[in-house]
Design a protein that fits this description.
Blueprint lengths: L2 H5 L3 H4 L4 H10 L5 E5 L12 E6 L12 E2 L12 E7 L8 H11 E9 L8 H6 L3 H4 L1 H4 L4 H5 L4 E6 L2 E2 L20 H5 L2 H4 L3 H17 L1 H6 L7 E2 L3 E7 L5
Length: 248
């Protein structure tokens, strides 16, 4: 069983592509007509106007989407340079060999687009700093997540751009609810976030009850209430483009 066989069961309920983020991803794909989506999951952020082949190692995730190839990033079952672009959305930190997977993206596609989380932002996010300060000791996926500089050691990087999270973002990834802390109390929301879903039950319950108490008492708003008035927030998400433009 892969990690996402265990934690991906609620994805179709809580992880819907946000159209503003999707637009950023699609622009990054440039004029690519053929795309391989590596670690595709339920297919969020796949363009509908191009030929897409999805690859995922989980039996649970593809069951919530159209058919895709069962496989891993580290050994993509495709010839060299067969795609215009390779896409990876919030998945690289879950690969067992991140460098090998990035090399595979470079091997099979002329252009690479990676939507990732810059890990240096993690410890500063209130959910971590206030409630899970030992998160990076607990979870290797968070502790060993590659930074943009790590990705650049493999890919020929053309650009890296910040992707601020909108205040009403509909995709329930880790920092989606930066201004809506009540959402983190929802078991379905927690189950759709890899960082929450990998925690042991005792830790997850402790964090939930501590946050609930702080919301009830007003302590959370005293510390972070200013966030509720912002329209967007840079939580550390980035889109990296590597490789070259296609011929069109």
């Amino acid at each position: 069983m892969t990690r996402y066989d265990a934690i991906g069961r609620s994805y179709s309920r809580t992880r819907r592509p946000d159209p503003r983020l999707a637009a950023r991803v699609h622009v990054a794909l440039g004029d690519a007509r053929t795309v391989v989506n590596v670690g595709a999951g339920t297919g969020s952020y796949e363009p509908s106007d191009r030929a897409v082949v999805a690859v995922d190692p989980s039996a649970t995730m593809p069951a919530q989407r159209a058919p895709c190839v069962l496989g891993v990033a580290e050994h993509l079952p495709f010839p060299d340079s067969v795609f215009d672009a390779a896409l990876a959305v919030l998945t690289v930190h879950h690969w067992s060999d991140r460098e090998a997977g990035l090399h595979e993206m470079r091997r099979v596609a002329h252009r690479q687009v990676v939507f990732f989380f810059e890990p240096s932002f993690g410890p500063e996010f209130w959910l971590v700093s206030d409630y899970l300060p030992d998160l990076y000791d607990r979870l290797a996926t968070e502790r060993d997540a590659p930074a943009g500089a790590d990705i650049a050691r493999v890919l020929d990087v053309q650009s890296v751009a910040p992707v601020p999270v909108p205040a009403d973002c509909v995709d329930g990834f880790g920092a989606c609810y930066w201004n809506r802390p009540e959402a983190y109390l929802d078991p379905d929301v927690q189950a759709g976030m890899s960082s929450f879903a990998q925690l042991d039950a005792d830790t997850r319950n402790r964090v939930t009850e501590q946050l609930r108490a702080d919301l009830d008492s007003g302590a959370w708003d005293a510390r972070h209430g200013h966030l509720r008035s912002l329209s967007e927030f840079d939580a550390g998400y980035r889109i990296l483009v590597g490789g070259t433009e296609t011929d069109g």
